[in-house]
Design a protein that fits this description.
The complex is a heterodimer of chains A (about 190) and B (about 350). By secondary structure, chain A is an alpha+beta fold. Helices cover about 25% and strands about 15% of the residues of chain A. The chains are: A alpha+beta (about 190), B mainly alpha (about 350).
Chain lengths: ~190, ~350
């Protein structure tokens, strides 16, 4: 007894097998059409982005290399209470929430107490050691989301190749430093 | 008696100079075709092609050659030594030898000395070409077989089958021209085209010869002997360095040879249309221009058509090209008899 496929049958429309005339057309006419198509492509401008010289602009929300932030100086007196005292201090308070959120486990934070003589961050504690191992980082941006003080954000730099693995462990100083703007940013509506 | 009767006497030193000049020209043209192919293929695919070495990437072939020549000459342990080394030499020698018969111009009067602008004007022109074309396949077959690798072997076997399928049609495609011209000498064939280039009366012969030429030079869509995707390079899988460079060189030289033969036999050689008779020194430029047009066609077709399946190649050769070429030869023969 043969199996009854029931409703599962799919009817496929097939073109008739090419006869002599159609076969000749397929062999020569379609070949000529193909030649015309490729010739048309040759007259167009190449779509290549000449990478090291030309770079594709990144979107503002592009998740590139991390940046650590300091408090900026607040220009107007009284616009932001305590603005002047905080200016220049690191935003990071060494809470290690970013390290906890990191799925790749590439962030290492060692916190230390701020003292009146040695004040580094605005909170009670600061990050004595803040390292991101970029060879493990998956650029998911969870650290940015986890941070309660917006101390760490994802930047736009994606040219991160290096010769040794240890060179890819970025320290706090490297992350705090103003990054070289090597990547063009996509303008609004681009 | 020599290989071929030369139409007039030339001193030995003229022959030596001619050989050197033609060889130098051929050797300079191969890198140009190489870079032209890569640049044009790039443009056909909406990219730039090589543009890093030298202005507009013009020195890329030099870089390629230096890279290939400084590579290790690796030989698989399963290969047969002397055949493995000999095969690329056969390929390149036959290609250069075939280049010798392409006429770049009429007999010129240079400082009172009569010089023909070609290597040799053999009285058996096309036969000489087919002879060397057939020997050239030994380069591929021996190379593939002596490599001791299954991919190379498959490529070589395909090459052998392809040779049998296409040499016949190619020969028959030229028969119509030879009937009409009444001579086998290539310069004679060019002179016979004074009234009308053979591409018009022998259009089917032209088509068949061109398609068979694609097959003979192992280029797309008939590059089954190489077939990078399935045979990892086919007959030259095991070759690297200078030997691979020889194969590569021979392939492009073969493209030039077929372009030259198509130019000579179907496109009127050094003749210009509309009865324009320029001074003699223009002849080689005309031939080179026509050759570059045919070479462009080769590259264009490579950019357009995908590789044929093996059985499609066979059935196309035997069921379409061969009947077409035979019919063309027969009809031409009848017409020649009727009109004379």
């Amino acid at each position: 007894m043969t199996w009854d496929p029931g409703e599962d049958v799919v009817e496929v429309m097939r073109a008739p097998a090419p006869g002599p005339a159609h076969g000749t057309y397929r062999a020569f006419g379609e070949t000529l059409r193909g030649l015309k198509t490729t010739f048309g492509r040759m007259l167009e401008k190449p779509v290549t982005v000449q990478y090291p010289e030309q770079k594709t602009p990144v979107y503002p929300r592009f998740r590139g290399r991390h940046k650590l932030h300091r408090f900026e100086d607040i220009p107007q007196e009284g616009a932001h209470p305590g603005g002047h005292e905080q200016a220049g201090l690191e935003k990071c308070v060494g809470c290690s929430l970013c390290a906890a959120a990191c799925p790749a486990d590439c962030i290492r934070v060692v916190a230390a107490e701020n003292t009146p003589e040695h004040r580094v961050s605005a909170g009670e504690r600061y990050a004595e050691v803040y390292e991101i191992n970029l060879s493990r980082c998956i650029f998911c941006g969870y650290c940015e989301v986890a941070c309660p003080f917006d101390a760490i954000t994802m930047g736009h730099d994606y040219e991160l190749s290096d010769y040794t693995r240890s060179d890819l462990i970025f320290t706090k100083e490297m992350l705090l430093a103003e990054p070289l703007e090597r990547t063009p940013l996509r303008r609004e509506g681009e | 008696m020599t290989l071929a009767a030369v139409g007039y006497y030339e001193a030995w030193w003229i022959q030596v100079i001619k050989a050197i000049v033609i060889f130098a020209v051929a050797l300079q043209m191969v890198p140009i075709v190489l870079i032209a192919e890569r640049k044009l293929l790039g443009r056909f695919q909406a990219r730039y092609g090589p543009n890093r070495v030298g202005p507009y990437g013009a020195l890329q072939p030099l870089a390629d050659i230096v890279k290939l020549l400084t590579k290790e000459q690796f030989r698989p342990s399963t290969s047969i030594g002397f055949l493995f080394a000999l095969a690329p030499v056969i390929s390149i020698v036959t290609a250069v030898a075939a280049f010798a018969i392409i006429p770049f111009g009429d007999t010129q009067d240079i400082f009172g000395t009569k010089v023909g602008l070609y290597g040799v004007d053999v009285s058996i022109g096309p036969l000489y070409l087919f002879a060397f074309g057939a020997v050239a396949f030994y380069g591929i077959m021996l190379g593939g077989w002596a490599s001791g690798s299954k991919y190379s072997f498959l490529g070589a076997m395909r090459g052998a089958a392809q040779l049998i399928s296409y040499e016949v049609s190619q020969g028959l495609a030229l028969v119509g021209v030879i009937f009409t011209a009444g001579t086998l000498s290539l310069t004679g064939i060019v002179h016979a085209q004074e009234g009308m280039w053979y591409v018009i009366p022998q259009f089917f012969g032209f088509l068949v010869f061109l398609i068979a030429g694609f097959a003979e030079t192992n280029r797309a869509p008939f590059d089954l002997t190489e077939a990078d995707a399935e045979l990892v390079g086919g007959y030259n899988t095991e070759y690297g360095g200078g030997r691979f460079a020889s194969y590569y060189f021979a392939e492009y030289l073969n493209v030039l040879v077929v372009s030259g033969i198509v130019t000579t036999v179907f496109l009127g050689g050094w003749l210009l249309p509309f009865g324009i008779h320029p001074p003699g020194w223009v002849d080689p430029l005309v031939v080179l221009f026509k050759m570059s047009l045919v070479t462009f066609l080769f590259i264009w077709v490579r950019a357009t058509l995908p590789r044929l399946r093996y059985d499609q190649l066979m059935s196309f050769g035997w069921k379409i090209l061969l009947p077409l070429a035979t019919l063309n030869a027969l009809v031409t023969a009848v017409l020649v008899v009727v009109t004379h």
